[in-house]
Amino acid sequence: MSSLQFPVSSLCFEVIAKDGETRAGVLTTRRGVIETPVFMPVGTAGTVKGIRFEELESPDLDAQIILGNTYHLWLRPGIETIKACGGLHKFIGWDRAILTDSGGFQVWSLGELRKITEEGTEFRSHIDGALCFLSPEISMEVQAAFGAEIAMAFDECAPGEATYDEARRSMELTLRWAKRSRVAFDRYRTARGSERVIAGRDSGEPQARMLALPESQALFGIVQGASHLDLRRESLKRIVEIGFDGYAIGGLSVGEDKPVMFEVIEDLAPRMPADKPRYLMGVGTPQDLIEAVARGIDMFDCVLPTRNGRNGQAFTSRGKLNIKNARYAQDQQPLDEACGCSVCRRHSRAFLRHLFLSGEMLAGILLTHHNVAFFLDTMRTVRQAIRSGKFTKFRREYTEQLSSGWE
């Protein structure tokens, strides 16, 4: 095994423009180039709810990466099914990049249905009540089988209102789990590399060529510590010492006040390695994303565009719009006159309200399409503003327009 020459990382990240702490970059994976800052639509069970992959790949949306959920996919359909179907990309029919989370947050969110120990987390499945156990080693095995471009270390999330002692205990456990995740991940990467060399020899393909395009995934570490800045700094320092391909801020938007969230990001992001992607997990509204970008974050995911779309709420350049409101019953305007998505080009608020009140599934599909398009287009505009040195002006104008509202 020692003769195999693996790359330090299976992805490459380069910052191409800066405007204060704000960064625009290029993240290159084996499945293509991703421009950052980037929003990743959430595909919990292998599908972004309410949108076909053809739409996600279309110029209207053009999502370069989506997120998959280890916890949900592990429970159903299960690792053996996904392995038998050739990995997660082939199973779901998505050829672009995927990031899989570790399952730690979903297990934490089960509350009293789970028991956390040093070894891992024991919990009852939300599907059938079966007793399950998830650990750093199992999470790495599952994510290795999925084959996503980016995997996440297994972590433990403290609630936003956690006391200092509770947050420290959680952070220390996350650090121990991060080390175990790193060891297990590297073991699977070595095994995959060995298999690829053997396959290359059997097929007559030169070994050098096989290793030049690694099938190994990248692994991101997660910084915890709740709202306590000294714990966050210590967590970051020790996570970086373990060594990961990128670094995520976890445990935010879990009950703490929004100013506290931004205080943590503002303190932490500039301390994160400048040559690695910075990922803020599970956040948030378009304005949240812009404020986090201003503080140095590169990657985001959130269920809001799809969840809110299914519930009749649209994100627009002037704030949120609830399509159920009676005021839209005969409104011939699109959801957002400033939006160029296919929904806004074709349908009126009156029609969308009619669909929603009629219980038509198309209502959620169309609102979700618009919301995802709005999030992705916002990030495209952010990237352009950073590259042109106009982010500060864009941020101010965006905030002013949002505050104008629909009244």
Could you explain how this protein is built, in words?
There is one protein chain. Helix 14 (349-357) crosses helix 15 (361-387) and helix 15 runs antiparallel to helix 16. The chain is of the alpha/beta class. The strands form four sheets. It has an eight-stranded parallel barrel, surrounded by five helices. A three-stranded antiparallel beta sheet has the order 1-2-3. It has 16 helices and 16 strands.
Which architecture of the largest domain does the CATH hierarchy give at level 2? Alpha-Beta Barrel
CATH topology of the largest domain: TIM Barrel
Strand content: 15-25%
Contiguous runs where pLDDT drops below 50 for at least 5 residues? 1-8, 196-214
Question: Number of helical segments?
Answer: 16
Question: What general form does the structure show?
Answer: globular
Task: Write out key terms for the chains shown.
8-stranded parallel β-barrel, globular, 407 residues, alpha/beta, TIM Barrel, 2 domains, 3-stranded antiparallel sheet, disordered N terminus
List the helices and strands and how they pair.
Blueprint: E1 12-19, E2 22-29, E3 32-36, E4 38-43, H1 53-57, E5 65-69, H2 70-75, H3 79-84, H4 88-92, E6 97-101, H5 104-108, E7 114-116, E8 121-124, E9 131-134, H6 136-146, E10 150-152, H7 164-203, H8 207-212, E11 218-223, H9 229-242, E12 246-249, H10 258-268, E13 278-280, H11 286-294, E14 299-302, H12 304-310, E15 313-316, E16 319-322, H13 342-346, H14 349-357, H15 361-387, H16 391-404
Helix pairs in contact: 6-7, 7-9, 11-15, 11-16, 12-15, 14-15, 15-16
